[in-house]
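Help needed: design a sequence for this.
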């Protein structure tokens, strides 16, 4: 199948390159000329384990451009994979999503063939139906469900293992506006053996947010348990192992530490809290999860000061600035508050 990908960040590029590995022809669209040049040379502009090798192996199937017209006219399916950054109040900024929908709509206006638009960016429930769909119809002059298709297909990729997560997913969620769209997207995923869940557009959007909120909750929970264990000289990892053997709980995401970070969890939980306020609902658990996470890095400083009460002038090594292993992404990394507090204590920081 011929597929266009709007946005070449972690989600977009991994999605495109992995679909190329499965035999599809990919056209990536981005506004950054440097990224376009790198991709066309077979060099990924981001670090993700295994991505460069896949891009090199499938170089003939992956092409990058700034030209929306070329991309839409020469493909059958378009994935929107642009960023949805946070505003100051925690709500998400849809400017990149809106721009992508407008540009796609303009090109659909001049296209005779039916075309499927797939929303993959993380957006709050109702966004695909109430924001993306009207823009596509407005700028194309066509009707969704008749002249073009629309689906919501959330990503569940973890940075550092995103290639593996794409090729070996736990599940695939297809939120669809019309039956033809559902069938076409399901056909694209026909070689995957995992369960495929078919839902409404809004349910698909909510599944993504609910999943991330639950995983963040699990981490904050085990961090609180870990803090208690330290006070009592209990091995928190033994406790986690014992909990994890219960099939209702599972061992994943039960490693206590200094908290969660990255480009997804902080943004998504802030968005959920902001959205809950807007619709008149409470988000007490999610808000508490965020508060626990904000305080957790300082627990490491407290632990250090038990052994080295005065940090002024001391040289302290910080091993790892990224928010997790196997990535170079430091966005919302919990190592940053640790470094800032060490500097505030007048310590000399050497980071790796």
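Sure. Designed sequence:
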């Amino acid at each position: 199948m011929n597929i266009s990908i709007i946005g070449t960040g972690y989600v977009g590029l991994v999605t495109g390159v992995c679909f190329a590995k499965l035999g599809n022809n990919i056209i990536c669209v981005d506004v950054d000329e440097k990224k376009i040049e790198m991709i066309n040379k077979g060099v990924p502009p981001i670090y993700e384990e295994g991505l460069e090798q896949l891009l090199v192996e499938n170089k003939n199937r992956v092409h990058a451009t700034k030209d929306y017209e070329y991309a839409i006219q020469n493909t059958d399916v378009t994935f929107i994979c642009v960023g949805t950054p946070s505003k100051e109040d925690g709500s998400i900024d849809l400017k990149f999503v809106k721009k992508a929908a407008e540009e796609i709509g303009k090109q659909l206006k001049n296209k005779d063939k039916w075309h499927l638009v797939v929303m993959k960016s993380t957006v709050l429930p109702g966004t695909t139906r109430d924001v993306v769909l009207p823009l596509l119809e407005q700028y194309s002059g066509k009707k969704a469900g008749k002249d073009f298709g629309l689906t919501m297909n959330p990503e569940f990729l973890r940075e550092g293992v995103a290639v593996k997560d794409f090729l070996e997913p736990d599940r695939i969620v297809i939120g669809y506006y019309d039956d033809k769209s559902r069938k076409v997207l399901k056909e694209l995923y026909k070689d995957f053996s995992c369960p495929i869940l078919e839902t409404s557009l809004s349910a698909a959007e909510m599944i993504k947010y609910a999943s991330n909120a639950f995983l963040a909750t699990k981490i904050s929970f085990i961090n609180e348990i870990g803090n208690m264990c330290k006070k009592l000289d209990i091995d928190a990892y033994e406790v986690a192992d014992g909990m994890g053997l219960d099939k209702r709980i599972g061992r994943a995401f039960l490693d206590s530490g200094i908290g969660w970070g990255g480009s997804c969890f902080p943004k998504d939980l802030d968005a959920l809290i902001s959205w809950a306020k807007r619709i008149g609902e409470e988000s007490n658990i999610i808000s508490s999860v965020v508060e626990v996470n904000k305080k957790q890095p300082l627990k490491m400083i407290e632990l250090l000061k038990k052994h080295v009460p005065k940090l002024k002038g001391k040289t302290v090594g910080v091993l790892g600035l990224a928010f997790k292993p196997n990535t170079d992404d430091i966005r919302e990394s919990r190592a940053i508050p640790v470094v800032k507090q060490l500097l505030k204590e007048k310590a000399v920081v050497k980071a790796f």
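The chain has two domains: 2-199, 210-351.
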